[in-house]
Known about the structure:
The chain is α/β, with parallel strands linked by helices and 351 residues long. It has one domain (5-346): Ribonuclease Z/Hydroxyacylglutathione hydrolase-like (Metallo-beta-lactamase, Chain A, 4-Layer Sandwich). The chain contains ten helices and 14 strands. It has helices spanning 12-24, 88-91, 98-107, 148-155, 172-179, 183-186, 196-203, 216-233, 284-287, 301-318; strands spanning 65-70, 73-84, 116-125, 130-133, 164-167, 191-195, 237-240, 245-247, 250-254, 263-269, 272-276, 321-323, 333-338, 341-346. The strands form three sheets. The protein has a seven-stranded mixed beta sheet with strand order 1-2-3-4-5-6-7. Strands 8-9-10-11-12 form a five-stranded mixed beta sheet, with no helix packed on it. Helix 4 (148-155) links the parallel strand 4 (130-133) and strand 5 (164-167). Helix 5 crosses helix 8 (216-233). The relative contact order is 0.15. Mean pLDDT is 88; it is low at 3-38. Residues 1, 171, 173-174, 279, 325-326 line the site of zinc ion.
Amino acid sequence: xxxxxxxxxxxxxxxxxxxxxxxxxxxxxxxxxxxxxxxxxxxxxxxxxxxxxxxxxxxxxxxxxxxxxxxxxxxxxxxxxxxxxxxxxxxxxxxxxxxxxxxxxxxxxxxxxxxxxxxxxxxxxxxxxxxxxxxxxxxxxxxxxxxxxxxxxxxxxxxxxxxxxxxxxxxxxxxxxxxxxxxxxxxxxxxxxxxxxxxxxxxxxxxxxxxxxxxxxxxxxxxxxxxxxxxxxxxxxxxxxxxxxxxxxxxxxxxxxxxxxxxxxxxxxxxxxxxxxxxxxxxxxxxxxxxxxxxxxxxxxxxxxxxxxxxxxxxxxxxxxxxxxxxxxxxxxxxxxxxxxxxxxxxxxxx
Length: 351
Ligand SMILES: [Zn+2]
């Protein structure tokens, strides 16, 4: 996913989506019986729930992180929240017919205006290092986002504990935490790892958006936003490439198309592994079943689809455990074949 300057969603459609998340919120849940006397504070949706903002009282659920072991590596999916994604036919399936989009919505029990983009980051703690993969939105997508730091605190960590921050790519829902919330300075001891291809694309004199379906103004906003983020980390930045080690047992994996230098991250320990595929999938109900559906945020939508199908084929064959920036929380699971496409098979939550 993408945002432009100031971390605000970089095109008209997604901006409306983000604003919708601020204005509309989600019906409060989990407070039945909390207060029956009208007019009291306790009767307000979300009253008393930690992290529930008044403008979006139902958006924050009780769980903000999910922990699992990958061999000896401790991994946490840390949620940054979620936001309204707007009309999927303009974001998630720009080359699909309206009937196909309606079918995908029906299959997932989703309303056309109720599709939300989830934002997950991944924290990996090994005996060698604490590595954070992506920094969330920094709150730029409305009050139901920007929760990464508070959910990190629930693990007992602060940005100052992080040794390395991997930026999977330079879109605002991934770099936002470098500009607001913790900010780059808040990661006081971290090195910042960025794909060299990604860095060179955004830093170049004229990033090539010839294949993008986004309007020019949105492209310009994205370029400016990426440069603000790269400016913020330029003094502590290391450029990496496909297969490079981030920390012992943690390696980068090139997954281009979405952006030219878009990275996944592989965590391996013993004979176990986890692949964080970042924006390979923007929404499990769309990109998994139909990898060829083009995503508006992809710099090269056709290449994004090609990489998506190839990677999903590999994941379905390997049976690898995956996580991703926009998979449904807790965003751990596997890829299974489903007809001509695939589906996300989530792991069962365990306590
Ligand atoms: Zn994204």
